[in-house]
Design goal:
The protein is α/β, with parallel strands linked by helices. The protein is built from nine helices and 14 strands. The structure holds guanosine-5'-triphosphate, magnesium ion and zinc ion.
């Protein structure tokens, strides 16, 4: 979000600009000044112009690294004050990638949001295939199988959203906006085509937006991002994504990264079968990709 925004006052949307002194602060900051979901303080002029003069404290933040290193690392706040992150993935077109779910799950937990999974495009396979994809990947999240094409699972999904602020995240083309269209019927939402060749959706959602759910609560649609960069990450954060690793008994060393340390209960669990190999492989992959501290 740039220097202007749409504000929801509980009844209507208003276009607002950022007050001058806030722009000065924005130039120095290494992140976006305003994020969708922010609660703001406004000043309304005699002529009816809305200006944002302050931003309230953020209860949660979904944030990703956006280039730069060390002290110069920039971040992007994808959404503020959402309680849940609905990670949308598709069974096919684009193919299901558990590693992406892990990354979003880490970012959500880090920012104080509860991650959930919606496996969309269930119509492109059988129910068994959808169940199997989630089971094989040992995804430790509440997982809802849905299809925006047929409406399958939408009622179940709706139950999870009532009264909460939920941000939709996931790769381009997985069907975030299509799901939103079911949930917020009157919304005027643009969706795009997935090219048959690349299986990648065109970036159809170009900026994040908040929608009001008819049953109460809010949904935030975001553009699909190509790279989910974690930035500085502690090994324990990576472990927290995987149930079997997070719940393993304490290792001999408190700072154990579960790679080769003696007295590691995760490595022992891998031997005994308590930690499934697929979980351990994904843990190692995420650990390597993250700039682990
Ligand atoms: N078969 C099938 N196609 C779907 C389903 N949901 C969405 N699609 C199609 O997938 C394509 C992409 O859907 P979008 O809703 O635009 O995807 P998005 O996640 O919002 O994508 P970005 O805005 O680019 O991040 C469109 O052609 C949709 O019609 C589904 O459940 N089944
Ligand atoms: Mg979209
Ligand atoms: Zn260990």
């Amino acid at each position: 979000m740039g220097q202007s925004a749409l504000l929801w006052d509980g009844r209507a949307l208003h276009e607002a600009t950022l007050a001058g002194r806030m722009k000065t602060g924005a130039a120095k900051s290494r992140t976006n000044t305003l994020a969708v979901g922010d609660r703001v303080e406004v000043d309304v002029s005699d002529t009816g112009r809305w200006r944002i003069v302050g931003i309230g404290p953020r209860e949660t933040r979904l944030e990703r690294a956006a280039g730069g290193q060390g002290a110069y690392q920039r971040t992007q706040i994808i959404a503020a004050n959402a309680q849940q992150a609905l990670i949308v993935a598709s069974l096919r077109d684009p193919p299901f990638r558990p590693g992406l779910v892990d990354r979003w799950s880490l970012l959500a937990r880090r920012g104080g949001l509860v991650p959930l999974l919606a496996l969309n495009k269930a119509d492109l396979g059988t129910v068994e295939e959808a169940d199997q994809a989630v089971a094989e990947a040992c995804i430790p999240l509440e997982a809802i199988r849905v299809s925006a094409a047929t409406g399958f699972g939408i009622d179940e999904l709706r139950q999870h959203l009532i009264g909460e602020t939920t941000v939709l995240v996931g790769h381009s083309g997985v069907g975030k906006s299509s799901l939103l269209r079911h949930l917020v019927p009157e919304a005027d939402i643009v969706t795009g085509e997935v090219s048959a060749k690349s299986h990648k959706g065109r970036h159809t959602t170009s900026s994040s937006r908040l929608y009001v759910l008819p049953e109460g609560g809010y949904l935030i649609d975001t553009p699909g991002v190509r790279s989910v960069v974690l930035g500085d990450t502690h090994a324990s954060e990576v472990a927290s994504v995987f149930r079997e690793i997070a719940e393993a008994p304490p290792c001999k060393f408190r700072e154990c990264t579960h790679r080769m340390e003696p007295g590691c209960t995760v490595l022992a669990g891998l031997q005994s079968g308590a930690v499934p190999p697929v979980v351990y492989q994904r843990y190692r992959k995420l650990l390597e990709e993250a700039d682990v501290l």
